[in-house]
Amino acid sequence: MKPNRPMRQPSSNERGAILLHTLVLLALMATLLLIIVANSNRGIDTARAVDDRVARQADMDSIIDLVVYDIVREGVRSGWLQKSAAFVSAPAPYQDYKVRVVDVRGLVDVNDGAVDLVRAVLADISIDASRQWKRRTGARYRNLVDFAHDTHLDANELFCLSVNATTHSRRSEPGPRFAPKSARHFIRQRSEHPNSVMEEFSGGVAGQAFQIVVLTPDNFEAYELTAYVTGRIDLPILVREVLWLPSQCAGLEHL
User: Fold this and answer.
1) Where does the source fall among the domains of life (predicted)?
2) Counting Cβ atoms within 10 Å, is residue 58 exposed (0-12), middle (13-18) or buried (19+)?
């Protein structure tokens, strides 16, 4: 019976190769683990962001419902029509949100408004757009998105436009009685006697359209809806336009 051979000890080069191979495997495993953890965290963050967005949407829908219900029920006595078209806290329990309600008769109509007024509103956002814009002949803008596409405005510029403009008033100029503070600036520029066109609500709110803007608590996004009050019991409102936009406008807190 042959004696057992003594085990050969690996050389220093072989030991180095084994160590290097082990370190490479460990590094690969660590990288794989980091990728798995990162993907897991990304998935959690994405799910959380989706949940937050859904929750905000539900809150804003509830706020819109409360505001519209009050306008339809109270008519001209609605507190929302007595707030000078300014941003105020939303009804409980949504006080972290801000709401502004404007009768569209107080906004500049990009279809029917005087050309100099439309240009002035545009110039407040984009000088280039104001210079290049020409009124359509024989066609109307269906909504402000249509107008923004025609004038090459981005999403944030579209929101800045929407706080002063509409496609639903069919007026040559805004009525100061209904205009938000920002739109009154354009009226004053155009007329030395704005009080001569002052108006009051007559015959209730039926047949009128209102722009309702809700700002998220961080003021980064706005949910905007234009509702037409029909005066009917079975179908009290018709939704004319809905926008969800970034809301980074200079001086937004003063609108």
Assistant:
1) Bacteria
2) exposed
